[in-house]
Amino acid sequence: MKPPRRPTHRVARLALTIGLAVYGVVILSHPESYRLLDHVDLAIHETGHLVFGPFGEFMGFLGGTLFQLIMPAAFVFHFVYQGDRHAASIPLWWFAQNLWNVSVYVQDARSQLLPLVGGGQHDWRYLLARTDLLLHDQEIARAIHFAGVLIFGWSVFWGIAALRDGRGRAEARPVPPHGAYETSEGNT
Prior knowledge:
By secondary structure, this protein is mainly alpha-helical. The protein has helices spanning 7-29, 38-52, 57-82, 85-107, 123-130, 137-164.
């Protein structure tokens, strides 16, 4: 039998989802503004250059953005695996917010007005120039931004839907009793 849910738990989760929805709209109104999570995102982005750098120059430049997207995606997969759909909706929101950041960076590829950490070369100018897409930076940025908007909307919808249908958080997975993994010969 399922233990009864505490109503305050669901209310807190709903408040978080609504808060992220409102905050997302604020970010969308000015995605170029520096916000709360941007410090965390920047640290993850810069770490991505170090992680992917050994795989060549192109991957080193792309690694910042990749890592910035891989981190929230890993949390989404973790919570989905745990059966907590509502919890998975939170890092999915973070993934969308990162796409908005990436879109601002891509949009800056030709103009290069954004300040770069430690100077150096602009990641997306390098990446788009290497792939002969530099003249399409604005269209690519808009596509990335739009993908972020869609994922943002899905994350809010998914979070609320998970709470409405009562599957926002699954029960803890039971630990099998000792001997549950015995083979047909009776060995563990």
